[in-house]
Amino acid sequence: MNRFRVPFRILAVLIVTAIAWGLRARAVNLLPIDYDEDDYLRAGQESAHLIRTSDWRGFLDTNYRPEHPPLAKIIIGVSILSAPEKPLTPDAPTTAGPNQYLPRDLVKPARTVNAAFGILTVFFLSLVNPLGGLMLAAHTFTIKYVSQIMLEAFPALTSLLMVMSYLQWKKGKRSGLNGWLILSSFFFGLTAASKYLYCVVGIAVLVDWYLTAKQDASLKSFFRNALIWSALAVLIFFAFDPYLWPDPIDRLKESILYHAAYSENASEVQSANFPLWQPFVWLTMSPAIWHDGVFPVAPDLFITIFAAFGLARLWKKERVYVLWLGLALFFLLLWPTKWPQYIVTLTAPLSLAAAEGVMATWEGIVLWWKGRKNKPAVQYKKVEIRNVIPWLVPGLIAFALLTLLPLLFQFAVSLTDFNTASIRDGFQGGIWHAVWGGITGQIRAMPLSFSDRSNKVQYTGLGSYFPVLNFLANDGVLVFNVLWTILSVLLQTGLGLGIALLLWQRGVRFGKFWQAMFILPWAIPEMIGALMWLNIFQPESGWLALAVKTYGPNIPFGFFAGWENTPNLWLIVFLIPAIWYGFPFMMLASSAGLKMIPTEVFDAAAIDGANIWQTLRYVTWPLLLPLLIPAIIIRSIFAFNQFYLFQAFYFQDSTLATLSYNVFNPNNGFGRYGGQFAISAVINIITVIILVGFVMLFNRWSKAGEGVSYA
Amino acid sequence: MRKIPFWRQIFTQLAFILIGAFVLLPVWSTARLAFDGSLIGRPTEFRFTPKEFSLDAFLKVLDKPYQSVQFEILFKNSMIVSLGAALLAMILGASLAYAFSRFRFPGRQPGLFILLLAAILPPIAFTTPLYIVLSILKIRTTLLGLTIVYATFAMPFCIWNMRAAFQSVPKELEEAAFLDGAGNFTTFLWITLPLALPSIAIASIIAFLMAYSEFAIGWLFVEKASTVTLAMSIYAIVQTQYLGGAQPWSYLGSLAIIMSIPAILIFIIFQRTLLDRMMFGVSGE
User: Fold this and answer.
1) Residue A154: which of A186, A123, A114 has the closest Cα?
2) Architecture (CATH level 2) of domain B61-278
């Protein structure tokens, strides 16, 4: 078996590269002209002109769109050298729409060279991990932005090469500078000279390097080497950025300051009004919906999901990729400009993480399959089975009628286009008729169409799933729901645990009174609590809006005014009632947990001279956490399904809410055509699939919980 | 027992005052509207306290809160539906819960998985099919139909909880009853059920509250004003209010306060056991 490993690997790399080639070649030919392509083509034309006329001094003062360093633009210029010279693409402001009149015989070579760098990136990544290479090869956002006249393709390649050569160095002796390290700083310099954003990768390398040096207790040589490495990179950056030579300080300052000003003031950034978490939305959606027929597959969402599960494994294998992914994501979250092409900075490590996620899933399935055979078959007693029947049957009938049947029905509806137009037919068995016909192959699946609504229920097969998943991804519903769950549970737990710890101190005055008061939000029905908060946040007549109207916007919390137009504030305004409603539960759960920890442990800690924080960190927290996990899972499920809060805050046509809310209001996502029962059903099925994951967590915890008892 | 130092006491109390303000803020924002007699439509000026203190809104709401339906009818509907749903869910679910808690049979593990999944599904998952089934049975717009809807929402949760309750009854007690010649059913009725009753009662209170405060989905099952529940009438007021209706906002506030009182009482009395039940009976007791 081992004999075939190397040839097999080579074959895998070649196949993956070929796939990348095919997909990118297709994109080069089919993608329409996008924003900014005219700008960078013009920059390329300027460089090409300088090269043709051998005007080398001209590079000192030529850098169209000087906010980006010139290297990637010069490369575009080189790529169009063999094409006939065309008049310079007109200068247009950054707000201008895509210029559809760019000469095709310039666009083609410029795009092709960029795509070639994209293919090379996939090639090198598949040397690290062929599966990861495959992920990157098929990642549609990456395909799009490396196959257009953008500045992404080259720095994406050089930043990967920088990390790979650094890792080569790390694998070796790690001592001193050698060729690999110098190569790595060379690529860092090239990266910086192409697009600043990709320099985040350099920080990841430095962090990893520092951590490794700390492990080896060789910090001294780290500081020396890292300094040389960085200095070399700066030199190379400078060498490949001729525009800087005449006036380095001012031009560098100008180009960097431009980005800060752009993110604050540019009208296109303002009008896009992207939320803080928009990079996550880019990661879950695919440009396939903008460009019909360009991408044969759009696995972006699944790559991101697998990557989330593969992070831990990747960290164990090679930390620097996770650092790269994390730092880049962190930067993109903080940075106010949120264009989709920025995620190309991190799709390489993302693909590696996704590959690990796929492997972990695969191994899990294999393990389960093997374990299934080894498990001894449970012997059931005949008497017991006979005895259980009278208990099971009546309950099962009720359960099947009231719970299973509706779920089955939902699934059936999700395979059709059932809506208000076909409601009568649906009531008279049209759904079963359509689904039965579809499954048995008597009826062909119809494409989902909203405008042409038949009064008969039509079978669509799984045809509605992709539009719905697309809607959930594009409108950010999926990301919002996950973010919502994590943030609201985190904050509820933080507040609840904090209060429980405060109440738990010996001799706190009025403890009983405070606890009774803090339970109040839990006791008020969720919808009424939401209405109470709505009295505060209602945009026109709410308490806050009136206060701002009376006293001006500079009062405390005045910045919340107009929250309904800003996605970030929108999230916060919904989180406030969610925390208010949820923290009492976590407080009670924490209090109950704290009571179960034997006091001797704390006496022991006190004898050993631990202070408050040490006791909390090393004694209370590890003992409490296993007791809190059930409560955290319950709250997560609740937060994930949160519906009444969003329904009570009376906003029509908004999709920034949980899946449950969108099940109830499917028309928000699907525009003018009301009563899309089928869409509801599809969202419902997706919710069920996600909740199955939760139940697995739940089961594992309840098994683990049996072993935990301190009382 | 050593008491905490003075500065920590002060810090703790200050923190609690802040959190208390956070807890009470929305309650007060509602109360200041509910007790304001000067409101004609929406509030137009910022006030911390009611402009004219009055109980008019409460009296109006206790008479005819929604359209021309009397409060007693709404309250009666709420009670019928909520109590009915809790009872129905319990009765329909009890035998299944007992089967899963006491017997080993093929398909038990997958069954438990499905039960738990059903218990954590959002109620909306069941809405459309119920709508159609109840329409076909011609009881969609009746109180019975609504009761069935809410019972459906509550049943998986109740089954899961009753299962835990039955499991916590010592098996030895049942075995003793068997030895004395009691049958399965007799043992369940006279031994297990009474012993598990307190936990079951708490679970049914949760089912009751679920139905008591549900409004959005129930609204789909209502056509006549006479089958509206309290929670729905609140939502109806919200809808007219934000669509520019002329009702004073004080009605909504006062009705919300009235509706919360029973729930608050229940929670304050049973807080510890409610918590345990809501954790699906698996918190470490």
Assistant:
1) A114
2) Orthogonal Bundle (1.10)
**Distance from A650 to chain B by nearest Cα, in Å?**
7
Strand partners, B63: none
The DSSP annotation for B101-148 comes to: HH---TTHHHHHHHHHHHHHS-GGGGHHHHHHHHHHTT-TTSHHHHHH
Q: Does A592 contact chain B (CB < 8 Å)?
A: yes
Are A532 and B283 in contact (CB < 8 Å)?
Answer: no
Pick the closest to residue A529 from A595, A465, A574 (CA basis). Answer: A574
**Measuring CA to CA, which residue among A621, A658, A682, A255 is closest to residue A466?**
A682
pLDDT per residue over B157-197, tens digit each? Answer: 888 888 888 888 888 888 888 888 888 788 888 888 888 88
- How far A639 CA sits from the closest chain B CA (Å)? 11
Work out the angle at residue A473's Cα, subtended by the Cα atoms of residues A471 and A477, and round it to the nearest 5 degrees. 85
Beta bridge pairs of residue A385: none
Residue corresponding to tokens 């990642």 = A139
Structure tokens at A650: 């009376």
Closest CA to A602 of A687, A705, A710, A530: A710
- The closest alpha carbon to A541, from B79, B165, B247, B183, belongs to B247
Start-end of CATH 1.10.3720.10 domains in chain A: 481-706
* H/E stretch holding B48: none
| A628 HSE (CA, 13 A, CB side) | 24
* Amino acid residing at A481: N
Q: Backbone phi, then psi, for A148, in 5-degree steps?
A: -115, 170
Record: contact B125-A663, CB cut-off 8 A? yes
Q: Which residues does chain B have within 8 Å of residue A523's beta carbon, measured at their own beta carbons?
A: 260, 263-264, 266-268
The verdict on a CB contact (< 8 Å) between A523 and B266 is yes
**Nearest Cα residue to A475 out of A271, A657, A276:** A657
For residues A566 and B194, what is the distance between their CA atoms, to the nearest angstrom?
Answer: 55
Using a CB-CB cut-off of 8 Å, the residues of chain B touching A507 are 1, 3-4, 9
CB contacts, 8 Å: B267 with chain A = 519, 522-523
Torsion B128-B132-B137-B138 (CA) sign: positive
Interchain proximity B97–A395, CB inside 8 Å: yes
- A482: which residues sit within 8 A by CB, 6+ positions away? none
The pair of three-digit structure tokens given for residue A616, joined into one six-digit string: 């909390």
The whole-chain average pLDDT of chain A stands at 86
A93 touches chain B (CB under 8 A): no
Cβ-Cβ contacts under 8 Å between A and B: the total is 289
* ipTM reported for the complex, 2 dp: 0.86
B-chain CB neighbours of A387 within 8 Å are 103, 184
pLDDT score, position A435? 83
Give the model confidence (pLDDT) of A437-492 as tens digits: 888 877 777 776 666 667 778 888 787 888 888 888 888 888 999 999 999 999 99
Contacts of B1 in chain A (CB under 8 A): 506-507
Query: Cβ–Cβ of A535/B95 closer than 8 Å?
Result: no
Looking at the predicted structure, is the pLDDT value of residue A625 above 50?
yes
CATH class belonging to A481-706:
mainly alpha
- Using the beta-carbon criterion (under 8 Å), do A507 and B1 form an inter-chain contact? yes
Which pLDDT band holds residue A709 (cuts at 50, 70, 90)?
A: very low
DSSP assignment string, A431-444? HHHHHHHHHTTSSP
Angle at CA A211, nearest 5°, toward A207 and A215? Answer: 170
Q: CB B26 to CB A402 under 8 A?
A: no
Report CB contact under 8 Å: B217, A535. no
* A620 touches A635 (CB < 8 A): no
Domain boundaries, chain B: 6-57, 61-278
What is A401-423 written as a DSSP string?
IIIIHHHHHHHHHHTB---GGGH
pTM score of the predicted model:
0.86
**Binary contact (A634, B279; C-beta < 8 A):** yes
